[in-house]
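tool_log.txt
---
The assistant was asked to compare two proteins side by side. It first ran the structure predictor on the initial sequence, then on the second. Raw inputs and outputs are pasted verbatim so the downstream comparison step can read them without reformatting.
(1)
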Amino acid sequence: MSSNRTLISGGLVVTAADELHADVLIEDGRVAALAAHGSAAAEAWTAERTIDATGKYVIPGGVDAHTHMELPFGGTSASDTFETGTRAAAWGGTTTIVDFAVQSVGHSLREGLDTWYAKADGNCAVDYSFHMILSDVNEGTLKEMDLLVGEGVTSFKLFMAYPGVFYSDDGQILRAMQRGASNGGLIMMHAENGIAIDVLVEQALARGETDPRHHGEVRKVLLEAEATHRAIQLARVAGSPLYIVHVSAEEAVAEIAAARDKGLPVFGETCPQYLFLSTDNLAEPDFQGAKYVCSTPLRPREHQAALWRGLRTDDLQVVSTDHCPFCFRGQKELGRGDFSKIPNGLPGVENRMDLLHQAVVDGHISRRRWIEIACATPARMFGLYPRKGTIAPGADADIVLYDPHAEQVISAETHHMNVDYSAYEGRRITGRVDTVLSRGELVVDRREYTGRAGHGAFVHRSTCQYL
C-alpha cells in the first residue's frame, strides 16, 4: 500500500459542532474519513497504524493565534525560540501558532517579515503563520500591506500603547484600518491609552511606587476601556473589521458587546492569565509579582466573571495565550526598583488547552465551546479553517488524544517552555494531553516526545472567515 494510513479508534470526537463516538481515518497527513465506532464502514478500514483512543477525547489540535517567540523587548528577548516554543506548544496540545513579525520604525514590513521567516524556518515542531506588527504607518508601508495579504499574512497589529516603541496615533490607525477595509486584512489592536499611561507611570515612580503591583495600578481599567471604545469608533469610520487582543477588563468587554449588539464586525480575544490570575499575583512579595507583569495587566479577581460570561455569550470569541516568556532571573529582574523596566509578558503556550479543559470541569464553558474558542474560531478568524481547527474529511490531521480524567500539577519542574517559572505553579488540573499528531505525524506519543524541529511548516492564510 503506497499511502500512509493511521486509524484512531474508539474515542469521543469533540469538535466545535459535534460530539460523537467515532473512528478517524488519516491518510497522507489529512483526515480521510470519520465513521461511527463499531459501524460496518469503520470495521472495514485497514491502516498501517492503529491508535487506541478508548476513554479519551479526540480533538482538533489547538490554534494559538497570539504568540511571541524570540520577541525583542526592553533590551532583552523572549526566552522561547521557535524551536523550544513550538515543542512546548505541541506538549500542550497546540498544533498551530500564529506569531507576530515585527516591523521596526524606519524599516519596511518586508524586512520585518523576512527576519521572522528566518527565525522560524526549519526550527518549528508544529505549523506556524504570522501576523504583522505595524510600528510605522506611512505611504510605503500601507502599500506593502496589500502585498502581505497576497502572500498569506492577512492580519496586522497596531498599538495604542508603548509610545516610542510600537505606538501609532489615531491618524495612522485610521489609515491602516482603511487599507485593511480595502485589502481584506484584519486589524488587531492593543487597546490601552499609552500616552496617558506613561504620565501615570512617571507620577508613580516619582512617588517612589516602584513595585510590580504598581504596573497594574497605572495601566487603568478605564484606559483599556477608553482605547477599546476609540478603536471601535475608528474602525466604524474606516469601514473596517476589528479584533481586540488580550481583553482583560469588564469595561472593555462591555464596549465590545455594545459594538457587536449593533452588528459591527468587532471581535475580542482574552487569555488564560486574565481568566485564572489576578492582581493578587502582581502583589506577591519579594518582587515575585514581576513574574506576572504583562500588558494589558492582570486585573482584580472580580473581572474574571465578566470574561467567562463574555466567552459564554460570544462577546469574546477566542482564547489565545499572548505567550511571551521572560525568565525571572536575569530578565524580569531588570525591573527591580522600577516596575516600568520589567519585560512585559507571561509564559503560557503549553498550558492553554489544559486550563480551558479545567474550565469545562469547573462548569464555566461546555466541551464544544472549549474546542470552539481554542481551535475552530481562531482558525476561522485568521483564515486557517477548515484546514485547521476541526476534524473533518480534507482537514490536516492535527489531532490530539486528550485524557479527561488524568490529573496533573502545573509546574516549572515539568513544563517544556524555556523559562524558569510557571505562572500557574502548583495548580492542580484535571485533564492532560496524551498523544499529538501534526499533519498525521506523531509529535507526542503517549506522553513521549517524538517530534522534530523542521516538521512544522509555514501556513499561508486566507482572510478572516467571519466577514
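(2)
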Amino acid sequence: MMHITVKTFAQTRELSGEDNISLDLEPDATIDTVIKHLTARGSHWELALSGSILSARNHQLCDKQTVLNDGDEVAFFPPVTGG
C-alpha cells in the first residue's frame, strides 16, 4: 500500500465539500486511479472532477496516466482564466 494526500482548490473544493483527503492506494496507482476512487464516493465528487479539471502531482501539472509514489501530494483544480 502507498499513502497519498489529495488537495482540492476553488470550485473543485466547493463541489466536493472536502479540501484535504488521505488515501491508501495500491502501488503503481495513477491520477486516473485517484479520480475513480474519489468519484466512487458519490455524485458530488463526480461533479467536482468532471469537465476540464487540472491535476498536479507534487506541485507539477500532470496528466491522468501519471504514476504516483508513496507520499505524493495530488491536487485537483479548475483551469484558471484571467484578464
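---
observation on (2): The chain has three helices and five strands. The longest helix spans residues 31-39.
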